[in-house]
Amino acid sequence: MKKLITLIIAVCFFEFTHPFDSQAIPSFSRKYGFNCNMCHTGFTKLNDFGQRFRDNGYQIQEQQGKEKNVFEGSLPVSLRMPVGYSSYNSNKSTASSFNLLGFDFLAAGVLHKNVSFLLIYTPRIDVPSANFLGPDSLNRNPSQTGSLESVSLIFSNIIKDVLNIRIGRFEPGYHMFSSKRSYYLMQPYEIYTMTTPNNSFGFNDNQIGIEATGHFRSGFKYATGFINGSGGSPDNNNYKDIYLNILQTIGKGDGQSAGQRIGLFGYYGRQPLTLPGNVTGPTGNTNGMNSKAFYRYGGTGSFNWQTLNLQIMYMKGVDDKAFNTLEPTENYNYSGGFVELDYAGMLNNRLVASAVYNWIMPPSYDSNRDLKAYSVLLRYYLGHWSAVNIAVHAEYTYRVTGKAVKLNENMFILGLDFAL
β-strand 104-112 against 260-274: which pairing, if any? Predict the structure, then answer.
């Protein structure tokens, strides 16, 4: 018995202290022989090297043209699938179940020197016993409806470091904190998902268009784009939306895991109020009319100390009064943001802890959208495999929505986040 106890203690000590090889987007790791910590603090969050690798079109700095492209190596394909058990209760209802929380098919790589691509497909995931005829069949909505989330070509170093072009559908540069690479499986950045009356624009959506990015030795970075602004839906609007995000990094690093970074962003868009539908383009778009303007602008900050990272975002939204079905004589004004504190500990950042506070402040006449949400999580990374990541994931959120009539919600999930 003593020998058995000693063996168990030794194995546990080894698991908690021994460095391990793991891959975050494993196709890149298989290509370069990296483990996940080369690009990630802990998958899915990028560190400084990972951010620069992404900015450089999935090429290592100064290795452009010297490394294998996708035609010379193994297929650049990766998969990710989080599964778990969730429980929910509120002052109105309770529910619990086992869940398949998502499934991502990823492919990315270099096609030629300074030419690369990214493809992310999220197939439809049905609730149990659904019949696959569509998201509304039998009034059962799938947990993931199916989407070509990203498909883009990246032309890097058109002007070395200063000008890179991305074309296709992509996560736009005004997402300084990526909702696609958040640690949280259930809790979104609430300000990203905020909807306003009669305006179909979604801040959280990946967009179709063209984007220019670049960075300078001074630590200054920018991203600017010209996009449809309609997510993956047909663009029923002859106007195109524009945005600009500017960032300044202070100190060594890129502001992801070292150095300090502050930024400002602005978005100007137009949406049609009427869709006559008497003209239909070959891609399914109609000639929307009577377009009105809306704005999104704000500031961001990312501050690092040792293995602590503090992320802050504040955003202000303004919609033209023509959208405002609640108070048609006033522009619809709202604000919100989040503060997130992340900690990575143990060797190879095996343990990740995080806490985030989200808030939304709508106008007083739309107080049902008032929101405060408090979330915490723990992730512990398992495995010694060369091409598999598994994270044990525990996450809890307490959310209060509304003012006059409050909805109090508690959500908990315990699961595994799996990538290969």
Answer: unpaired
